[in-house]
Write a structure and sequence with these properties.
Length: 246
């Protein structure tokens, strides 16, 4: 992802673009006196004040994310499993020091949108293709992602099988290691999602408390966009399911 930001006396100008090839990225690089590309769509923000500094921070998506795998995962009856999936990260750009003002935010990668669920009880979400990894070290982090642990507790007497994961990223918090003082976009972690399977189509979902993440020597760097509640857990479509038309 490349971003261009320009400041004049009365306004800010900004634009961004995505490269054809996606490479892992964990840090920001800056250049000055860069010519403005003519083929970009520029946005102008009127800001007749003296703020001339900008800051950058990561944040999770503003809506749900579907992670689709090319292989299915099965959790045996009366057993537990933990999967790890990548969530796309947004770049938040603010102006000023101290009391900052949001200038704009944008996803660090180009994303496609898809409808997930039924026509009556589904939602528009972003889609990402990646493995549902059992080992967090196997999660594909391109270009910038946050690892989201998914704990599955299969209390039923049947196998639970899925090849897709839906995470309401807007209700998750963002963390990184306390000891990390550089590379603000590296080693990012999201809230843990807990899925309890009581039987066929009988699922309950929750977001684990902060204690489970802070105990891992992580610190919170971004809050949820929407406070978690029961509404999105209790809809008629499943958080995990095989999607024949996806």
């Amino acid at each position: 992802m490349s971003i261009w930001i320009s400041r004049t006396t009365a306004d800010w100008l900004y634009a961004w673009s995505y490269p054809q090839t996606v490479e892992p990225a964990t840090d920001l690089t800056f250049d000055t006196e860069v010519p403005k590309p003519e083929d970009l769509a520029w946005t102008r923000v009127i800001a007749p004040d003296e703020r001339r500094s900008v800051s950058f921070a990561p944040r999770l998506a503003d809506r749900g994310v579907v992670i689709k795998s090319d292989e299915s995962v099965t959790v045996l009856p009366r057993s537990n499993a933990e999967l790890h999936v990548p969530l796309p990260v947004w770049l938040v750009v603010s102006t000023g020091e101290g009391e900052q003002r949001l200038l704009f935010e944008a996803p660090t990668r180009e994303l496609h949108r898809r409808w997930f669920g039924s026509s009556m009880q589904g939602s528009l979400c972003y889609s990402v293709f990646s493995r549902l990894a059992s080992d967090r070290r196997a999660v594909e982090l391109q270009p910038v992602s946050a690892i989201c642990p998914i704990r599955i507790r299969n209390h039923s007497n049947e196998q639970f099988r899925t090849d897709s994961v839906f995470v309401q990223a807007s209700q998750c918090r963002l963390y990184r290691p306390r000891s990390q003082t550089s590379s603000p976009f590296a080693n990012l972690e999201a809230s843990t999602v807990v899925v309890t399977v009581a039987g066929t189509d009988e699922l309950s979902f929750s977001i684990a408390s902060d204690r489970s993440r802070l105990a891992d020597d992580l610190e919170q760097i971004a809050d949820w966009r929407k406070r978690p509640d029961d509404s999105w857990w209790k809809r008629g479509y499943m958080l995990f399911q095989r999607i024949s038309n996806y």
